[in-house]
Amino acid sequence: MSNTKTYNVAVLGATGAVGQKIIETLEMKNFPIKQLKLLSSSRSAGTKIKFNDEIIIVEEAKPESFEGVDIALFSAGGSISKVLAPEAVKRGAVVIDNTSAYRMDESVPLVIPEVNETDIQAHNGIIANPNCSTIQMVTALKPIQDKYGLNRVIVSTYQAVSGAGAEAVEELKDQAQAFLAGEDLHAELLPVKSESNHYPIAFNALPQIDVFQDNGYTFEEMKMINETKKILHHAELSVAATCVRLPFFTSHAESVYFEVEEDTSVSSIQATLKHAPGIVLKDNPQKQEYPTPLDAAGKSDVFVGRIRKDLDDHKGYHMWVVSDNLLKGAAWNSVQIAESLVKNNWL
Ligand SMILES: NC(=O)c1ccc[n+]([C@@H]2O[C@H](COP(=O)([O-])OP(=O)(O)OC[C@H]3O[C@@H](n4cnc5c(N)ncnc54)[C@H](OP(=O)(O)O)[C@@H]3O)[C@@H](O)[C@H]2O)c1
Fold first, then answer.
1. Measuring CA to CA, which residue among 129, 128, 131 is closest to residue 157?
2. Atom 45 in ligand 1: which residue has the minimum CA distance?
3. Nearest-angstrom CA–CA distance, 65 and 74
4. Pocket of ligand 1 contains residue 172 by CB under 6 Å
5. Model-level pTM?
6. Ligand 1 site-directed mutation target among 75, 190, 250, 252, most atoms within 8 Å of CB
7. Do 2 and 30 contact (CB within 8 A), yes or no?
8. Which of 80, 159, 197, 306 is the most exposed place for a label (fewest CB within 10 A)?
9. Cβ-count burial of 340 within 10 angstroms (0-12 exposed, 13-18 middle, 19+ buried)?
């Protein structure tokens, strides 16, 4: 980064699954930080976290915590963002919010830098980071939309437990060990902690991510539907989603069916995606080459494979999209937004 200016940065939710990856990403990308403030609830206040060669003590988040902060990366849950984001903005910070609190707010840009970076300019202090499942799908769809037009998208997801936070990762580990030891499985968290029924995730598949809406879709499915239209600036796009939680730790996988407007071919779509920003094409059925969640874990790209033409609709195609939900799906995308703010002087 050519800019030599440095910034006061705060990470809210620093002890969580996403927060920890934000800290690692800031360090890895050598983000120009003057001072880094790490915030959590009172439960984790006092925790020590290493950043570069420094040990930083996590503090309990309060409105005053944002005094003097230039950029605040939020990942502590929607209700906390609702309360603390306006407080941070009031004190002069620009908030990059990983929760669903502001994503569909018309005055808040919802941004994937490879897709709609310039939307950031219109911010009023808050920029929303899209849902993890939305980010990877839309990063892959955007180059296709630009070249061939897009009418319809139908997605089924295969989502990792880390998408439900650090506690869900522990629950899967405990249940897997219990299952293999022939013991009873205790489910207290998934599919949704605050709801009355919980089901084991170990060796299982749960067709519910987040709470059900009146229309029969879950909130996760509605996030994918609504956020896709907003990010692609395509209100008429038909989008349907089925979101499923599976028992692996990291990276979401998605089977995406899409219909284009102009005739094209598998090889043209492959060529388009091969040169698209943030995408790695791994698509060679002859050699059994396609992305899997384990390969994608720890990497910042969106991996695409299994591109094939629908057998009944000549404008329909299928593809398989995999990405690390905690990196491109959350931390990496948020830090990319922060870099864009700095690089373009959009703070
Ligand atoms: N996991 C993903 O793949 C993913 C992807 C995109 C977006 N998100 C979103 O990011 C947010 C965090 O997700 P996560 O998976 O990182 O959850 P998580 O592992 O459960 O971590 C939650 C973090 O928020 C903090 N927190 C909780 N209540 C707080 C409060 N009242 N005040 C201040 N801090 C508080 C926690 O601090 P304590 O340690 O003190 O409890 C912890 O640092 C959620 O809104 C989620 O939807 C997650």
1. 131
2. 77
3. 13
4. no
5. 0.97
6. 75
7. no
8. 197
9. middle
